[in-house]
Amino acid sequence: MAIKSGAQPPIQSISRAIAILRCFSGGQERGLTEISRMVGLHKSTAAGIIGTLKAEGFLEQDALTGRLRLGLELFTLAVNARSELGIICEPYLNRLLEMTGETVNLAVLDPDRAEIVYIAKKESTQSIRIGTSVGKRLPVYCTAIGKSILACMDRSRAESIISGVEMAPLTPRTITDWAHLSEELDRIARCGVAYDEEEFESGVVCVAAPVYYREQEPVGAVSVSGPSMRMDDDARKQIAATLRGVVDQIRGEMSKLAG
User: Whole-model pTM?
Assistant: First the structure.
């Protein structure tokens, strides 16, 4: 790359780190040998840079396979650079609130803690409401948002996220083992929406669908939640159909940003 007159030359270590990050531009997981070959660095040099990128949250390593992928910190910066995810989704969340009359949430995954983090909420105007809040963290395994994100991942990665978590029974309906959760994730992957059938909190039902930045893993998910007394089978089906349509519109908006 040519350097403009008067410009500072690039710092080699930073250029190498950027080159390593660009190895993941297609969303793949890669091993150390593959990365060192792609960037033309000795494995020991590449390993040192990768170690720093992992420590800073820009890369993550699968505990089972040892392969590397982009980390949540990089996504956080990317979202901030293109306006916050909550701002992008704002009009669609409002639309969902108007269409369903129930509480609408937007959350992202923190894979290191196996939790979802709420980043936006639209409160129902009905007298009985759901007690979520922006910044609140909930377990990934027993929430509709968490399960909808896990269902879109490679199953080995989803299992690695869950592996260090005690799947405690928060209600009589909570799924508490990987075998049953994996079956549930397969069902979610087929139908495109996830349900929390009073698994996190008795009396509360939630429907969620994932949001994509590119056609890779989801960057988060949107949910509609309400008391089980209002969220009967007919209401759930109607909300699921409405949610699919609105999330498709969000994906269209996100694809414009990616393009």
Answer: 0.69
